[in-house]
## 1
Amino acid sequence: MLTKIILASKSKVRKEILDKNNIPNKVEPSNIDEDTVKESLIKENVTPDIISKNLAELKANKISQKKTDQMVLGADSVIDLDGELISKPENRDEALNILKKLNGKKHYLISSVCISKNGSMIWNYTDKATLTMKNFSENELKSYLSKISDQALYAYNVYQIEGEGKNLFSKIDGNENTIMGLPIEKIKEYLKEVE
């Protein structure tokens, strides 16, 4: 039997991935101020993959300090466009601007996971997928966004890879679970080791 873990995230997608893989879990969001952390790390010229890893670790550690002797899973995903960090949109205008930036270009989707116990990281992993977006007119991008619900838009960044979003790309190299925010195979491997 796999160890029960606490998911330090309010992401419904990450919870669904854990459930689908029969990993017993309980959700307890960390509610850290991600924007402030990102801003300070960007000022230090930290790369997007390190920012993603740091956020995953902060989330896991915060909950892990309260829930001692339990494994806590923190996760974070960011888009890296030529070294520029692109975060989830706050509104539909921002979502359109992000899509215009990614339009016709290759970018990386970075997903980091961290497992903490007693307030400290005990394991972490970062995976990267490469996505190349097709060229679209602004009207086509607006049409795509009109098909996406608010909930999906803010949960999955600007594209749902398992839904409408697949049609945005000419090429996708990488694991679908990584793109959805949780490289589950590596998590399963780790949990088997510590059983």
## 2
Amino acid sequence: MTTESTDITFQGIAPSDAITAKVEERIAKLEAMSPELHKCHVWVRAPNKKHKATQYVIDISVELPGQTLAITRHPGDDKAHTDVYIAIRDAFNAMERKLCKWGDTHKERPETHVQPLQGRIAMLNGHTGYGHIETTDGRLIYFHRNAVDGDGFDALNEGDTVELSLDNKDSEKGPHASFVRPIGAMRFADTPH
């Protein structure tokens, strides 16, 4: 078992090694389907002892990051759940479907954080109001004072760290920045993301 905690509780039925083994086998299948599963609790219940044919109820609760999924398989009218193994099968099949649905909405969807292009001021020409930025991906990008956030051009120095956006339109000066914003050294990453 790889889950942090697995509990199997018997209610109204004596604990059984065979039933425990079947439940553990099905829990292992759930873990293989969803490695994020970190806690599983299964209740094997026989609530109708008064009747000649006991119908079993299987409750399953699994904990996933930020959510708990639960299944309660109450017996139907067809008396199929007079066999505890069929009740276990049906409950775990329902949980597998629920885990698949959860996985479809939560897996393979990492949060996307677009890191702005960064660089250092390589050259400034205060008289004509332009400069070049050496980006973290090794390019030399032209920028004009009008592209600098606010009135920040005059406060820039060679070696300062900046974030920039590139203009996709062609320019006679080559690639150029459409927006430049000074950033502190703490936010600057020397390697591209």
